C-alpha cells in the first residue's frame, strides 16, 4: 500500500494506482478529456494535470502512478491556470459551432470549457478543411477533431482494424484515415465504435432524419417502422430516464405521436431468422461430410464487412440468411403489403437500429428482393431517433405505454436477446433442439454463451450429436478466433460474431455516455425481457407461424430463399 496526501487529505491506496484513480477513491474529481480507461492513457490533452510537491512541472494524473509520501494538489492556482490554458488551446483547434453540433449538450469539451468558466478565446483559430464524402454512413469532421487519439486507439486495440492514424506534422498534425486512403477504400467495418468513443462531435453517423420526415409528410407513402432488439434497452438514456421506465412500449407511443403508420418489432424477424438460419444449420449438420464448418452468423453487417475484407476466402461459410433487419424489410414489402392490399411501392420501410453499419446494409444493391426498391429504405440509429423525439417536442417522461401493431409486432424472448452477445446463438440452439427432437428444451439450457467475455465457447449435446459453438464480440477478439480457426487450433460447428463489444447492446449507434461502457447493463435488460416473455422460442411465435402458413410455406422454401436469403458475394 502507498500513503499519500491529496488536497491535504491523507489517503492509502494500492501500489501502482494512478493519481486519477487515487483521487477518485477519495472522492476528489480531476477532469479528463482524452483519457479512456485501459484504451487511451496517454495524457495528451493535459486537462488532468495536478501539482506534486517537489516536482517543477505539473504532471498528468491519468498516466502517472502514486508514490509513498506524495503530496498532490488538484486545484492550486497553477493547476487551474494550466488547465485553462490547455483547454483554450484545444478550443483554438475546434470549430466550436455548438448550436449546430450533434454532440451539443453531450460534449466533454463543452462541459470542461464551461466548468472552467472559459467565456472567450484568446487564440486565433486555425481549422483544417473537411473533404469528407457526406453520403458515407460514417462522417468525420476534421474541424471538430481535438486529436485526443481515442478513435485511433479504439479502432486499433478493440477492433484491430487501424482505420485511423495521425496525419501531418507540426501544427498541421491531425487524425485521418490511415495510410493516406479515402474512407471508402479502407477496411472500415462501420461498427461506429470510434463515434461512441469520441468525446466531441468529430465523428458521427450520417443523419437521415430528414428522409424520414419527408416520407411521413408524403400522403402516398405508408410508413412501416421496425424497432431493433437493442434499441429498447438504450433509447431512454439520452433523456435520463430510468431503464425500467424507458420501455419499448413507450418508444412505440413516441413513434405513434410522430406519425408512423405501422410500428413493428424486429424481434419478429429475429424469430424468422432463427427459423431460416437454424434450418440451414441443421441441413449442414445432416450433410456434414460435404460441408465446411463452422457456419458463421451473418446478421451483423459490421462483421460481414470484416469477413469480406479480412477473410475473403471464408465468405462462403457465412449463413446465407439475411439479417433480421433485411428479412423484415423484404416481408414488409411483400407479405405485409399483401395483407394491407396495397402496392408494395407505397410502403416506406424504416428501421431503428443501434447500428451505423445497418445504414450500409440496407443500401447493398441486392437487398431489394421484394421488388419495390430497397427492402429497407432508411435506417435511423438510436441516437437519431432520440433527436427526432426531441425535435417533435415529445416529453418522454409523459409517455404512456402502447402496443406494437400486429401481426409483425410479435417477438419472442429468443428474438429480444439477439441484441446481446451470444443471444443469436442461444436463440438458435433453443429452436434447433426443438427441430431435432420435437421437444422444447428448458429455455435457459444454453445460457453458457451469455456474458461479456470477448470469446466464449460451449459444447452441447443435441439428440446424440455433439455441437461445439463459439461466440465472439469486438473485432480484435474476432480476429483472434478467426486465426485460431484458420490454424486448426480450434474446431466449431457454429459461430456467432458481433462486431461491437457486447453485441448490438454496445452498438455504434447507441446513446453516448462519455467514458462509461453501457453494454453490460443493456444486455441485462434484454435478458430480463426474455425471462418475462410468455414466448421464449422463435418457433412458437404465432405471427411467424402464420407468415409461413399463409405466405412463405416453410423455412428454406423457394419464396423464403428469394426473400430471406442472400449471396454475400453480390
Ligand atoms: Fe442488432 Fe439484429 S440484433 S444485428 O445488433 O441479428 O443493429 O438490436 O436489429 O438485423 O434482430 C442491430 C440489434 C438488430 C438485425 C436483430 C440481428
Ligand atoms: Fe451493428 Fe450490432 Fe454489428 Fe455493432 S454488433 S455493427 S450494432 S449489428
TrEMBL record:
Residues of the 2Fe-2S ferredoxin-type domain: 1-78
Molecular function terms from GO: 2 iron, 2 sulfur cluster binding; 4 iron, 4 sulfur cluster binding; ferredoxin hydrogenase activity; iron ion binding; NADH dehydrogenase (ubiquinone) activity
Presence of the UniProt keyword Cell division in the record: no
Stretches assigned to the 4Fe-4S ferredoxin-type domain: 136-166, 179-208
InterPro entries with a match to the protein in the record: 2Fe-2S_ferredoxin-like_sf (IPR036010), 2Fe-2S_ferredoxin-type (IPR001041), 4Fe4S_Fe-S-bd (IPR017896), 4Fe4S_Fe_S_CS (IPR017900), Cytosolic_Fe-S_CAF (IPR050340), Fe_hydrogenase (IPR009016), Fe_hydrogenase_lsu_C (IPR004108), Fe_hydrogenase_ssu (IPR003149)
Alphabetical UniProt keywords: 2Fe-2S, 4Fe-4S, Iron, Iron-sulfur, Membrane, Metal-binding, NAD, Repeat, Translocase
Gene3D superfamilies: 3.10.20.740, 3.30.70.20, 3.40.50.1780, Fe-only Hydrogenase (Larger Subunit), Chain L, domain 3 (3.40.950.10), Iron hydrogenase, small subunit (4.10.260.20)
Required cofactor names: [4Fe-4S] cluster; [2Fe-2S] cluster
Any one GO cellular component localisation term in the record: membrane
Record's subcellular location: Membrane
Limits of the 4Fe-4S His(Cys)3-ligated-type domain: 78-117
Domain of life: Bacteria
TM annotation in the entry: none
UniProt KW Iron keyword: yes
CDD domains: fer2 (cd00207)
GO terms under biological process: ATP synthesis coupled electron transport
Record SMART domains: Fe_hyd_SSU, NADH-G_4Fe-4S_3
Family designation: Belongs to the complex I 75 kDa subunit family.
Identification of the protein by name: [FeFe] hydrogenase, group A
Organism of provenance: Lientehia hominis
